[in-house]
Amino acid sequence: MDYPSKLIENAVNQIAKLPGIGKKTALRLALHLIRDKAENTTALTEALINLRAKIRFCTTCNNISDETICAICLSHKRDQAILCVVEDAKDVMAIENTSQFNGVYHVLGGVISPMNGVGPSDLKIESLVSRLNRSESEIKEVILALSPTMEGDTTAFYINKRIKDLALRVSVIARGIPIGGDLEYADEITLGRSIIGRTLFT
Q: Is domain 77-200 in CATH 3.30.200.20, yes or no?
């Protein structure tokens, strides 16, 4: 594709690096930014710079946060006895959108995937085990809300093996989520019912 400006070409190449955006979409977005008010483009730029510079990860659950400890972990309205283990921050958002879960979370940062070179030590599994082993822990149930894929099942099996000796109820979300699917693509009703209809991990 020929570009009338090197500046546009550079912008298109950077925008096209975002997931799900091809060169044509990237070009449309770049042209929109040129036509839009300068203050809107400046606001977008500042938001992205602040995102990278100031975003934090909760020291308790590893979820994306503005502060050292996220609002969910700090909330006295949440049921601290139920811990939901998820792969990524987007899964926390997906479950929160169902309004069916009032416990707390633990974000692993991925799933075990030998094919992609991701092992247990690359994830936040040790911090999960440590969290469950703390004497002050109120947690009574762990929900393994991982995508029903081979990698998700492998991760759930590994975590269950690590915590099986603890006095905890370990459950998995009901398989209303299709096998091989990702939580982020599940509709809110299906995901919500999966949380409510969770079963013991076996």
A: no
